[in-house]
Structure to design on (161 residues):
């Protein structure tokens, strides 16, 4: 049996799940992805921030669902047959992330990941690892753990409780 560690980036590269939000393509570490589900009705939670769509029951576990289009301020989300919920395991917490669509899994080597240029615009890109480039494609690589500030994680813990 071959026991190759998945986190070996010594040239093999890192795998990212590519997904779209509006006109942009994003990538998230495939090791954080637990499953991909079709969009489903969520139960709204009163007084939760707008980007927290609500909660769903995932095989007996109540998990919060975030809408990334709202979180990244990318306009009004449209829910159609391509809309999916990516179920993520972030530091032992299970969360759902609504995205417009998922396309494929891309392996990026360190050389294909470029730093985000400093625009000087003053907005935070702390949650962006870098820009992954494959041929003509460019993926905005998101660190989901960093994106969920501790305050947001605490809030989601309360929602799931």
């Amino acid at each position: 049996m071959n026991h190759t560690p998945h986190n070996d980036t010594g040239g093999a590269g890192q795998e990212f799940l590519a997904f779209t939000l509006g006109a942009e393509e994003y990538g998230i570490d495939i090791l954080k992805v637990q499953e991909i589900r079709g969009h489903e009705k969520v139960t709204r939670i009163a007084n939760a921030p707008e980007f927290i769509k609500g909660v769903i029951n995932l095989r007996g576990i109540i998990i919060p669902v975030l809408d990334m289009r709202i979180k990244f301020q990318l306009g009004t989300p449209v829910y159609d047959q391509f809309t999916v919920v990516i179920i993520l395991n972030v530091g032992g917490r299970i969360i759902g992330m609504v995205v417009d669509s998922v396309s494929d899994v891309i392996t990026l080597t360190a050389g294909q990941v470029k730093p985000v240029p400093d625009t000087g615009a003053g907005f935070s890109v702390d949650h962006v690892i870098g820009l992954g480039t494959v041929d003509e494609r460019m993926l905005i690589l998101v660190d989901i753990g960093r994106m969920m500030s501790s305050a947001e994680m605490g809030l989601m813990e309360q929602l799931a409780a």
